[in-house]
């Protein structure tokens, strides 16, 4: 890995971490509450039966079991297509680490969910959003791994577009359904962004110095 790429990945990991720490301070001191409420109130003006069905479907895709099933299928696909055991290991580490971090921080901060009417039933704490973290890490690592093997500009564009849309759509669905504050979603993106770039940084570092057997 060249020095520029090494520093770039390091920078991309540090910035989300610092941003997450700052946002967490504002969340815990309720400085984000006013804008959170304003955003939720506005989003609720967009409520429509068809939109609600779509948002529920997107939210379902971010549930635990759908994410597990999608992850297993992607792992099998990655190994079948590319025979890269190191990439399979990276995928698993990113996924499990994201889940563990989400639970750790949720039970550390213990932020209650919004008091607005919930369009789906949810329990547990709110910050950071578990669905949003799962979406960011899943589709983020998918982008990284498949980008390495897709050579065409069109293929890469479609890959990035699809994964970006899924990340943003699942996060938005959680706010629309009334189960998360917008800051929960933003915090989830920042924390999972830090974790994703950290693991990729370590992966690239190890690959250069001690290549993993393929």
What does this structure look like?
This protein has 214 residues and is mainly alpha-helical. The chain has one domain. It has eight helices and no strands. Pfam families: PAP2. The chain crosses the membrane at residues 7-28, 64-81, 88-105, 125-147, 159-179, 185-206. InterPro entries: PAP2/HPO, PAP2/HPO_sf. Residues 88-200 form the Phosphatidic acid phosphatase type 2/haloperoxidase domain. It comes from Halalkalibacter alkaliphilus.
Cα radius of gyration in angstroms:
18 Å
According to DSSP, the number of beta strands is 0
- Amount of helix: over 70%
**Ends: how far apart?**
18 Å
Class derived from helix and strand content? mainly alpha
How can the largest sheet be summarized? none
Contiguous runs where pLDDT drops below 50 for at least 5 residues: none
Number of H/I helices = 8
Give the oligomeric state of the chains in this entry, treating copies of one chain as homo and distinct chains as hetero.
single chain
Q: What is the succession of H and E elements?
A: HHHHHHHH
Strand content: under 5%
Sum up the overall morphology in one term.
Answer: globular
Task: Supply the number of structural domains.
Answer: 1
What is the average of the pLDDT values?
Answer: 89
Transmembrane segments: 7-28, 64-81, 88-105, 125-147, 159-179, 185-206
Protein name: Phosphatase PAP2 family protein
Domain Phosphatidic acid phosphatase type 2/haloperoxidase: 88-200
InterPro entries: PAP2/HPO, PAP2/HPO_sf
